[in-house]
Amino acid sequence: MKKFFSMLLALVMLLALAGCGGDTKAPAQDQGGSDANQTEQGGEPADTGDTGDAGDYHIGIVTGSVSQSEDDRRGAEAFQAKYGEDKVTLAIYPDNFTEELETTIQTIVNMSDDPLMKAVIVNQSIPGTTEAFRQIKERRPDILCIAGEAHEDLPEIGSAADLVCNNDFVSRGYLIIRTAHELGADTFVHISFPRHMAYETMSRRVAVMREACKEFGMEFVLETAPDPTSDVGIPGAQAYILENVPAWVQKYGENAAYFCTNDAHTEPLLKQLVEYGGYFIEADLPSPLMGYPGALGLDLTEEAGDFEKILAKVESALVEKGAADRFGTWAYSYGYTLSAGLAEHAKNVIEGKCEITDMDAVAEALNVYSPKAQWNGAGYTNATTGVKSDNVFLIYQDTYIMGDPGHFMGNADVEIPEKYYTVS
Fold first, then answer.
1. What was the pLDDT predicted at 46?
2. In what order do the strands lie in the sheet with 88-92?
3. What is the mean pLDDT of residues 190-211?
4. Which residues on adjacent β-strands are paired with residue 90?
5. Average pLDDT over residues 269-292
6. Residue 346: C-alpha distances to residues 54, 59, 154, 360, 366 (Å)
7. Per residue in 253-263, pLDDT tens?
8. What helix, strand, coil percent values describe the chain, rounded to 5?
9. I need a labelling partner for 60 at 20 to 30 A (CA). Which of 45, 116, 303, 385 fits?
10. Angle at Cα 224 formed by Cα 221 and Cα 228, nearest 5°?
11. Please, is 80 exposed, middle or buried when counting C-beta atoms within 10 Å of its C-beta (0-12, 13-18, 19+)?
């Protein structure tokens, strides 16, 4: 019996030594750049739950094409140029995304095939993004899913995304009308089409605009234009705007302000308003690049990426054409800043510098690409239930009116009357 226990004790000590020896060899796997994202035998990245030491990882950004949403795409390209193609993957969803829903979804989901992918940003988050995020989360719950400018109902996409950031359609619905009134406009013409008006964000903004027009004694008018994703395509939709603006100006007068909900409509609208008269406060997704270069025939190759120089050149061209104090924008592109800024925020979250729903951290990331901008915003509140979301944020930048000299309207500091938050 004594001999048996001696042998058993020796065996235990031998096993313990073998275990210690195995531990001393483990760090060798991490040499040469391996990290917490190292894949397991099944090919899926190990979800350690700790992002403090991110190591090697990838970020994916999905946007529309240059023809549909140039600023969104340029912002994604700027982020990729900053951190490298080996770190940042870009993709484009179809122009005709309403007819190619499955392709849109698959384009987004394909990002999760990369075992090192840790965040996917979609800007603009067109229909299909919610389903794509759900599929990604089923496959890879470790991937951050971030939606920029969602076209789907905010509570719905908020249930699938880790973070959603949209322009503040409530505050801007009021501020755009207020600004038009301050500049001298007496009529506000809203141009859109049924698909956009089915979105909660846009339909609520129209309701806010209508109420604000009543407050400021302005006439509110709805005009319908072709959907660029329909059979007429972008060329047909733009041709319609070019043909109809002169008649609208004759009908509503030169003191009417115009607004359209689609990027493709913006350039022809601006071109004709410069020619025939009228006000344009800011685009649906504001930027000095949104419609202005094409409408004014500007070559901004030398100014590319420098929004202060871009703004100055656009402003100078408007003044030369006698259009001072009638056209506005955000000093820094919303689409550009959102694509790059949300990716910057994702990078900070992955590296353990902040939490995904830290609004101050989101603002700091946006300011990396809009250093002199004044931003404001708040969490999204459901007008029906009154419930405030903790992962859906509404944001906006101060409005800049181009003139000689141009000036900011101070909109980031305006207190929005409480009643507008419940208008629906």
1. 36
2. 88-92, 58-63, 117-125, 144-150, 163-167, 388-397, 375-381
3. 94
4. 61
5. 95
6. 12, 8, 20, 14, 11
7. 999 999 999 98
8. 45, 20, 35
9. 303
10. 145
11. buried
